[in-house]
Amino acid sequence: MTTYNRLSGTNVRRIEALSDALYAIALTLTVLEVRVPSRQMTMTEGELRAAVFQLGPRVLTYLLSFMTLGIFWVGNQTFLSHVRRSNRHLTWLVLANLAVIALMPISTGLLANYLTYRTALILYWLNIFVAGLISLAAVLYAERAGLVEGGIGEKASAALKRRLVIGQALYAFGAALCVIHPYWSIAFIFIVQAYFAFAPQLPPRVRGINSPLGPA
Amino acid sequence: MTTYNRLSGTNVRRIEALSDALYAIALTLTVLEVRVPSRQMTMTEGELRAAVFQLGPRVLTYLLSFMTLGIFWVGNQTFLSHVRRSNRHLTWLVLANLAVIALMPISTGLLANYLTYRTALILYWLNIFVAGLISLAAVLYAERAGLVEGGIGEKASAALKRRLVIGQALYAFGAALCVIHPYWSIAFIFIVQAYFAFAPQLPPRVRGINSPLGPA
Amino acid sequence: MTTYNRLSGTNVRRIEALSDALYAIALTLTVLEVRVPSRQMTMTEGELRAAVFQLGPRVLTYLLSFMTLGIFWVGNQTFLSHVRRSNRHLTWLVLANLAVIALMPISTGLLANYLTYRTALILYWLNIFVAGLISLAAVLYAERAGLVEGGIGEKASAALKRRLVIGQALYAFGAALCVIHPYWSIAFIFIVQAYFAFAPQLPPRVRGINSPLGPA
Amino acid sequence: MTTYNRLSGTNVRRIEALSDALYAIALTLTVLEVRVPSRQMTMTEGELRAAVFQLGPRVLTYLLSFMTLGIFWVGNQTFLSHVRRSNRHLTWLVLANLAVIALMPISTGLLANYLTYRTALILYWLNIFVAGLISLAAVLYAERAGLVEGGIGEKASAALKRRLVIGQALYAFGAALCVIHPYWSIAFIFIVQAYFAFAPQLPPRVRGINSPLGPA
To answer: Is residue A60 pLDDT above 50, yes or no?
Structure first.
């Protein structure tokens, strides 16, 4: 490798800082769609209440997008916490991932506006799928290139891979459910995400039943 | 708990960085509403002065929103400064809080545009209430899960809880004042916030009188 | 002081992080006004060239705003680098400063759109003036409260105060020139800012002549 | 130099933090142009699919802009990682660079909208050229002022200079190709950027052939 390529992109702290700023923007991008109803059109309490209720779907889209992005941000954080140093290839894998992540608010918005359309669902799933794929590539590359710290780092790396593979399998299954109806897909994907986000500590008996779903 | 959930979301520094970037966006979101009056409509010094004066309410909304968000940011900073390490549940509590925080510019904008409407006031209060509730949940959870550092951390944690409970009680009382008129609510909430923000060091005599209000 | 107020807002690193994110947003706020000319209206190379030239003033506004904000950011950085620890009062002084800083893109835009209007000039100057005033208050407060580190910190603090006083005196003189014509004000303020930003190392002879202008 | 100018702008960590936040904004600026097609106009799956396909060029522009900015961000990171401390001149060189970087989304958008126009191509190239020039000035200045750390820092600095000179020579050659047709320029510049971004590790035989192109 040439000198520049060998010396560039080694600073994990900078990659983390760029990721945090970019995630913060992506997390708030959908909130820009929630607009205060204009003064001209709204005169009575009743009309204002109706106008606010109409903002409901956009607030839900925002919260859905927040949850999806939050899951990926936690993954990004967990991964980079265990990377000893970076190199230019890993830097570009993370950059590629961020490029895809910044598209999530748009595909979430598309889904929220076109809940019954397969096209919207497939694009939403595709976005999650590509983000997951690049995340997996980054983890695999970091392991092979010896960039992950030993001990706990290797464990985290293995857990991350398992989580990504299981998550993507579940998302793909969810997307496939759209042959029945997009609502089935959305419901299934939403439940998987909520489970991933809130990782409820179920009582042992329920955990036993639940284990095929929640090993990662 | 499964391996991924045990190893993920432990990096307090990343949570702080994401919070700072997201708060910076929320703090400036309302400023986007303050627009330079268009050249076409404004020809004389007098017209420009009039156009600028019309921006007044938006600048006030911006400053009000800045103050409210500043109070929560100081709380976020104080809390996380005393957290030794995080875990995935705490991470998601902070993320949930940030999701609610990013809605503050909108509910503040709603209030500023509909000063005399109960609906606007109730939504504004609800936003503050939910943000306070999740903050409290985060502090309680961090304490119970042993994530707060000993000594000064425990003191900060106790002070934060007291502040949150008293603050929320005052806000709720303020919101309830809207049965008289929303102006009473706004005035009361504004005074509480200004007191929290600037924490004036009153002379002892006044402090004595004031003590039921200002212990947190 | 009560416990919460004693323990909150002490983290300088967080104040720096919030400042950097907020300055980055303020620095890029004006660039959003520079829009790609729409495809519908532009058909020939000549028309595109004309459309691009019409963006010129907005690019200049952007660069002017960038320079002004850059001067304040360098001040913020220099100040906080020498603050040992913060407290809640200093935190709120910095927050108040950031609130005023985020208005700079708007007052710069106003000036750029209304170059010959005294109202625009006075508002632009007022924004710089208030930002300078709060900066000065923050430095004076930090010194009095013993938050500035000894040795080099005290020197930096003294230099910062001198720079702020001289800068504000020059800006005020510049603003006063608008009794002749706003162009005189703008030219004078621009020269002062360019001098502050680029701090040219003039050859000794010129420096001697220049010294009443450049001691800070 | 006067005291303020000697003591200000020395904090490399702050310059890095501002850069990261500003790059994150620039990276996501083009994504704001990718809008969810409005509900009113799109009724069938086919119409939605057509509307989504029409967003294609904007997504490509976004990815192109992301790649270009990514290359500069990696350069910024590599450079600042090896700077021991900063001073006010270096700070302002980086600020000037950031001012030019934040214009990249606009010139990329211009290029994407006017692929066949020489004006758009020249402006795009000019933006890259000025960014490269200021980067080079920053590296040269840091070296001369003794701000770069010894050993590996000097090597990184030399590699960076070589990369900048070769890169700019290739970009200039690419821009000159527009005397044939802008498409030739775009194709050439795109290949150079993709090569810089992904730095493929070609097998030795191909590397030998490729070496005049890829030494930096």
So the answer is: yes
Q: Which residue of D has its CA nearest to C202?
A: D1
State residue C35 phi and psi, 5-degree precision: -110, 145
Residue A203 has pLDDT above 80, yes or no: no
Q: Scan residues 121-150 of D and list those with Cβ closer than 8 Å to C.
A: 123
Query: With contact defined as beta carbons under 8 Å apart, do C185 and C121 qualify?
Result: yes
Cα(A25)–Cα(D198) distance, rounded to whole angstroms?
25
Neighbouring residues of B25: CB distance < 8 A, sequence distance ≥ 6: A24, A25, A28, B102, C21, C25
Q: Taking the model in full, what pTM does it have? A: 0.90
| C86 Ramachandran zone, left/alpha/beta (phi>0; psi -120 to 50) | beta
Window 23-52 of A, Cβ < 8 Å to C: 24
Residue of C nearest to B13 (CA): C14
Chain C's closest residue to A22, CA to CA, is C21
Bridge partner list, A83: A148
What pLDDT score does C208 carry? 39
pLDDT at D208 over 70: no
Per residue in C86-125, pLDDT (tens digit) is 999 999 999 999 999 999 999 988 888 888 899 999 999 9
3-state secondary structure of D83: strand
Q: Provide the shortest C-alpha distance from residue B16 to chain D (in Å).
A: 13
Per-residue model confidence (pLDDT) at position D201? 55
Looking at residue D81, its pLDDT comes to 92
Q: Do A2 and D159 touch (CB under 8 A)?
A: yes
C-alpha–C-alpha distance, residues B175 and D21, integer Å: 37
Locate the domains of chain D by residue range: 7-210
Contact B4 A81 (CB under 8 A): no
Ranges of H-type helices in C30-144: 45-81, 88-101, 104-113, 118-144
For A184, half-sphere exposure in the C-beta direction (CA atoms, 13 angstrom radius) is 11
Q: Which helix (H) or strand (E) holds D102?
A: none
Tell me if chain D has a CB within 8 Å of the CB of C166: no
- What pLDDT band is residue A38 in, cutting at 50, 70 and 90? confident
pLDDT band for position B96 (cuts 50, 70, 90) = very high
CB A104 within 8 A of CB A68: yes
